[in-house]
Model the fold of this input.
Amino acid sequence: ALTGDTLRSKKVIIKGHTDSDGNDQYNLRLSLDRGRSVKQYLIANFAIVQTRMKVIGYGSSMPLVPNMSNANKQLNRRVEIEIGNMP
Done:
C-alpha cells in the first residue's frame, strides 16, 4: 500500500510503543528502536524514500490495554503506522 499510487505522496509516521516493564528512559529508547527497525525494513524491502518517514517513540505512555498480564503487555509492544499529508 505504501508504494502504490494512492499513498505515494503521503508521509508515513511510524510510532513505537512498549509495555510498562523497565524504566521510562529504557522504554522510550526501546520504542524508538522498534520504530527505527520498521523504517529500515521498509526502506530495504520496499524502496520507500527515507524522507517520507518519521519515527516517534512513545515508550509505555500509550498502552492499548492495562499492563496487568503478560498477554496485555504483549499487545502493548507494538508499532503503529499513520499516514498523513506531506508538508
About this structure: The mean pLDDT is 95. The chain is about 35% helix and 20% strand.
